[in-house]
Target: Carboxypeptidase Z
Amino acid sequence: MKWVRSLPFVQSASLHGGELVVSYPFDFSRHPQEERIFSPTPDEQIFKQLARTYADSHATMSNNDTERCGASFYRTRGIINGALWYSFAGGMSDFNYLHTNCFEITVELGCDKFPSEVELYPEWKRNKESLLSFLESVHRGVKGVVRDKDGNGIKGATVSVRGIRKDVTTGKVKLRIGQHLFKAKVGALSREGPGWYLDGRPFSNTRKPGVNVVSE
Ligand SMILES: [Zn+2]
Model:
């Protein structure tokens, strides 16, 4: 928790076993009576896209066969909102989303929770493209550095995107705000304090009260 809070992580994946599906936040449904209820984050589109990226590059995850572990995820081709599957409190992807910049998905690698040693190499092969594609997807969107008027990076600045009720905060190193902006297409970055501006190729014409952003 300290680690992910101290560094501006963009994405992460946690590898599990026992099912064949990628689940994404929220894992916890706020509905007091419902255990299985679709609980999207403000970044639903991006989470869905990240989950799709993983499942579609996997050898079998997005196949539409019905011979799967217990639950059937063939209808959604191997992805699901966590709380719609089953709601639970205190999950790491919810924590990461709510308290840091990090977008975490949970990858259920297969029906066998404890595969034998001989299964490890085939398992790696089934997931290699997915893992690489997931890593590559970190380069989507817009990146930038929040600087003061002397050009020094500012730590702890809040960056908001119009239309998405979830801010990100700059870290010590380069801030990646790509995930939010990729879907926002055109948004506005707020300024926190006088004289701050965003420096990065995709950012253009500064207009009050914010900086206009045009993404790919
Ligand atoms: Zn799991």
The domain at 2-139 is CATH 3.40.630.10 (Aminopeptidase). The first strand starts at residue 11 and ends at 16. The chain has two domains: 2-139, 143-214. The helical segments are 2-6, 44-57, 82-85, 92-99, 120-136, 178-184.
